[in-house]
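Memo to structure team: turn this sequence into structure tokens by end of day. - J.P.
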Amino acid sequence: MKNNLSLFRTALLLLCVFAFTVNADAQKGQKKDWSGSYIADHCAGKTAGGTGICFDLSFELTKGYDDNNYVGTFAIDGFQTMVRAKVYAIVIDNELRIFYDSPEEDNFGFTEEYGTLLVTIKKGKRLIAIWGEKLIEYEFVCKATRIQ
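Reply from structure team:
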């Protein structure tokens, strides 16, 4: 009887280890779906008159033709600014890289070449946005910010 109970416990333990391993492998193979809304804000000081120079940046992304590609829109609203553009994104490892595609009809003032990197979003404990040089040059953002 003791041998049967010991054998049963061993078999049950092996079954639990196997189930955990299969579940961990299945989760490891799953890719993050980057579809959704991403929002960041940045303030670049004040005007001579004391008005805040602040910008809200947002991306709306949906899946493209496969799990590693996305399409969407990009907007910047703030001090004397209204940017509207189409974007595309590519997943590389655990990062999402978003590129400029083309301006929308109601875009004012910000146009870039097709394929200009706008931002790289890295996933860790929080989402971190590493902004592209063109957005930094225009002072819409600083080098890296949290993104929601």
